Amino acid sequence: MAAPTFLANFLKDNQYPGRPYVTLTFAQSLDAKIAGKAGKQLILSGKESMKMTHWMRTMHDAILVGIGTALNDDPQLNTRHLPPRDPEPATDHGKPYHLPRPIVLDSQLRLSPGCKLLKNFRSGNGRRPWVVCAATDAAEHGDRASRRQVLEDAGARVLSVPSIDGFISIPGLLDAIYNRGIRSLMVEGGATVIKSFFDQLTPHPETRLVDSVIVTVAPLFVGNDGVGYGVEMEKASSLRYTETVHLGDDTIIMFKA
Ligand SMILES: NC(=O)C1=CN([C@@H]2O[C@H](COP(=O)(O)OP(=O)(O)OC[C@H]3O[C@@H](n4cnc5c(N)ncnc54)[C@H](O)[C@@H]3O)[C@@H](O)[C@H]2O)C=CC1
Ligand SMILES: Nc1nc(O)c(N)c(N[C@@H]2O[C@H](COP(=O)(O)O)[C@@H](O)[C@H]2O)n1
Q1: Phi, psi values for residue 209, rounded to 5°
Q2: Which superkingdom is the protein from (predicted)?
Q3: Quick one: pLDDT at residue 94?
Q4: Ligand 1 close to Cβ of residue 226 (< 6 A)
Q5: Probe ligand 2: pick from 43, 57, 197, 216, max atoms within 8 Å of CB?
Q6: Residue nearest to atom 13 of ligand 2 (CA)
Q7: pLDDT of residue 205
Q8: Which of 51, 52, 69, 71 to mutate to test the pocket of ligand 2 (most atoms within 8 A of CB)?
Q9: CA 192 from chain center: how many Å?
Q10: pLDDT computed for residue 91 by the predictor
Q11: Disulfide check for 134: which of 4, 30, 163, 242 has CB 3.0–4.6 Å away?
Q12: Distance separating alpha carbons of residues 26 and 65, to the nearest angstrom
């Protein structure tokens, strides 16, 4: 089995010199909501588009969510919706699917050591998660040092990156993970992280930090209680609409930066 052709073609050059190639992707309702009331996780994607998202996961070195999503959804960020691989080496080369490295933006190290990402790693069913926290001026001590220790003991690799007002610097993050071998990054959300990455769009290739945007639109309304994401027109207008594909009842809309 291989990824859908439209996706393979769209992402065929997902490399960028000097920083990871960044794909921002998420699923939304017709009224642009990505979650329900009080952040309730919604399965917006149908079977076919969810499978596409899992194919996309195989096509990136790493996959990123914010701590809001990690605490709320307890995601696995793996490829379990894909069909079993053909054990016949002539077709699938006998290899398992590529699993992306999970990365959590977690300024204050609030991730639970019992989360599925860490459990999957410990049971040999996932890569070691990287937890990105805000770098501190002084040596860590007290509560914060013990939270780091607990997460490291549970299997996480903790990276410190400069932050502003509790938000990890996106250029700093991309530098840190590029220096550790990540060449392509899939950003899944949630709302605050999506806004932060939309903010990285500019019309100038040398300063923009997002390369592709892939939005799954599900044919339903969530209503005003749902969680939306903010987009500034000045930023979004630098996106170039590329293609629309229909998968099941969903519409996949793709842009290049
Ligand atoms: N429909 C979809 O495709 C998806 C929906 N979701 C939904 O999104 C909701 C969670 O969204 P949020 O609460 O906004 O949490 P989030 O997952 O966007 O995490 C935001 C938090 O990450 C930390 N952070 C550190 N550096 C940051 C930076 N540079 N930019 C942004 N955040 C940074 C901050 O503590 C911030 O509050 C959940 O309801 C979840 O179900 C999440 C992912 C995908
Ligand atoms: N593509 C997509 N469609 C939806 O309907 C979604 N709710 C999401 N959510 C994202 O996927 C994460 C869950 O991943 P696992 O199923 O646990 O592997 C969730 O946390 C969001 O990042 N995505």
Answers
A1: -125, 15
A2: Eukaryota
A3: 60
A4: no
A5: 43
A6: 75
A7: 84
A8: 69
A9: 12
A10: 59
A11: 163
A12: 11
∠ CA 41-23-165, rounded to 5°: 70
Residue 92 has a pLDDT of 59
What does the pLDDT read at residue 203? 86
Determine whether the shortest distance from the Cβ of 201 to ligand 1 is under 6 A. Answer: no
Q: Which pLDDT score is estimated for 88? A: 63
Nearest-ligand number for the alpha carbon of 164: 1
pLDDT at 87: 66
- Measured in angstroms, how far is the CA atom of residue 95 from the centroid of ligand 2? 25
Please list the helix, strand and coil fractions of the chain in percent, rounded to the nearest 5, in that order: 30, 25, 45
pLDDT for 55 equals 97
CA dihedral of 37, 40, 46, 47, whole degrees rounded to 10: -170
Decide whether any atom of ligand 1 lies within 6 Å of the 250 Cβ.
no
In the structure encoding, which two tokens stand for residue 253, read together? 């809309």
pLDDT given at position 90: 60
The residue whose two tokens read 């770098």 is 135
Q: CA 255, CA 151: separation in Å to the nearest integer? A: 37
